[in-house]
Amino acid sequence: DTMNWEFINLLYEKVKNNKYYKKLREEVPIIGTWGDAEYGVLNGDKENNLKESYKQYYLDFLDTHTLDQRRNYVNMGIYSTYSFGTGIHTVRFILLDLKYNQTSYLKEVEKYDMLGEDQWNWLENIFKLTKETYTFICISNQILPNDRFIIKKWYSGSRKRLFDLIGKYKRNGVIFLSGGLGFAQILKTFCPLPKIGYNLYECTSSGLSHSNKFSSYINNIYHNDYLIENTNFNGINFGEVIINWGEEKNNINNS
Question: What DSSP state is assigned to residue 183?
Answer without folding.
Answer: S
